[in-house]
Amino acid sequence: MTQTEPAAHDGRAEELARDIDWDALHARAIQMTTRSYVPYSKYPVGAAAWTTDGRLVSGCNVENAGYGVTLCAECGLISELVATGGGRLKGFLCVNGAGEIIMPCGRCRQLLWEHGGANLVLNTVRGFKTMDQVLPDGFGPNDLDHYEEKIS
After folding, report:
1. Which residue ranges does the record assign to the CMP/dCMP-type deaminase domain (predicted)?
2. Given CA atoms 118, 55, 77, 40 in this order, what sign does their dihedral have?
């Protein structure tokens, strides 16, 4: 949680999720799995999110022979978000090639925190969760601002 953004409370995820078209996100994420480049793992991943200004952004995973430089689907989604005007994410999900909802990895949770914050809603295998539930005490831009204020 950042210093200026309150954490969502129990039940808040479901409340925040009500105005999100999850079927459209799921369909886009599945579509994105067909664009994945996965010659090594054979595990396609697609991600999709709504922005607070109503845009739909998405991404797919892109592998590389140097495994450490593989790009997760969330990386592509965040690139599209920034390239199309920036803004904040409000609803997110990712799927595997079978269309099953999966959880973002730790690195991608940090990316999602940066661009959605504590109240970004994720559709997970265990229902709706806010980012502060899947990444408690997340580190974000406000932590840097707070530090700069302390040393100034």
Report:
1. 20-142
2. positive
**Burial per residue of 121-133, b for 16 or more beta-carbon CB atoms within 10 angstroms, e otherwise:** bbbbeeebbbbbb
Spell out the residues 6+ positions from residue 113 whose beta carbon is closer than 8 angstroms to its own: 120, 131, 135, 138, 139, 140
- For residue 10, the model assigns a pLDDT of 64
35 within 8 A of 47, measured Cβ to Cβ: no
pLDDT one-digit tens code per residue, 87-124? 999 999 999 999 999 999 999 999 999 999 999 999 99
Extract the tokens encoding 80.
């599209």
Please tell me whether the overall predicted TM-score, pTM, comes out greater than 0.90 for this model. no
- Residues with a known catalytic role: 74
CA 132, CA 137: separation in Å to the nearest integer?
7
